[in-house]
Amino acid sequence: MKRFLFSLLAAVALVGCGSKEEDKPIVYSAEEAKASIRGTMDSFYNCLKKANDGGFANVLFELIKDTKKSEGWGEYIANVFYNQYETKTAHQGFNYEGLKGTYTWNPNSKEWNKEVSSNSSNITWLFPATASSTTNNGRAVLSGYSDVSLTVKGEEERFPTKGNAVVIVDNEKVAEVNLNNITYKLENGYVRPTAVDLKIYTNPFTTILKVDVGSGDEYVADFSFSSPEGCTTRVKAVIKLTTSDLNSVASIEEAIDNIRIVAVQNDLQVVAHADVKAIHKLGKKLSELTNEEINTYAKAEVFKNGAKIADVKHEFERNNESVVYFIFSDGSKVKAEEYITDFEKKVTDIFKRFFNNSEE
Questions:
Q1: Looking at the predicted structure, is the pLDDT value of residue 2 above 60?
Q2: pTM of the entire predicted model
């Protein structure tokens, strides 16, 4: 198992950080390791600032900004569209075929005007990107949409499988969602996705999510978030189940065999593994584990450019408080919370216009 984890880590590091000379292992001191972790958090905040300053964030803010109505501008014009046109099919699906055409916002009537031509192959909306815009400087296009029909508890329902949506404002692409594929499985009256391939662009960031259920008892989720400016975040999680029939198990401890996670933020990587099956054999719930048991059955290590710089350990402190520590090569330890001090405040400060978006 450890060999597999290191192989996976090496592959991620190779893609994200470039090749290294195998005969020259990198060694970091404890102080260098601490500085790297703190620097990674600072880099993360800088990435959030870039996200807030990006074209998508500016457009999103204008669309949701309070316009002295009961909803934001984007919600207002969307609700007008839903009230004007039939957006659903008889089986609760999206009426893509029936809605094909071009819809133009009319500022005088406060309604959408529809134009249909014989070659209408998508749905296009032309609209003011802000409540104060005097022209339809925004364009949204939905194309290639498809869905599948499934019978759920005796009722036919439709679920999306593919589609592409793009938003352009002032001739600049600010957002795009590309749903390459979703497949579903009907099991005991419920529908669950068995594969997801989704790519989202929100200027200047690209987010990719892929989920796959292999043989039915293993879930693989791969998430990445990056921009041309160098912000790179990736998380890959593999959850192996003890059975594909989740209705036959009574608890999460019984349902999961093990969990493996590799997380990458720029040149820092965290590799974690939890042996849930072994915990279940103890006859305990996850919440009942002792400190020693947590560190025995759940392990995590921190790497920089493929070189290990810290272990991650758990401890119970006063009042049975749960604390996570980074343990460095010289034996020193630092609480994980010290690296995320004022996290909520910093994030709120970065995105404060969204938390307080009423017009003066």
A1: no
A2: 0.71
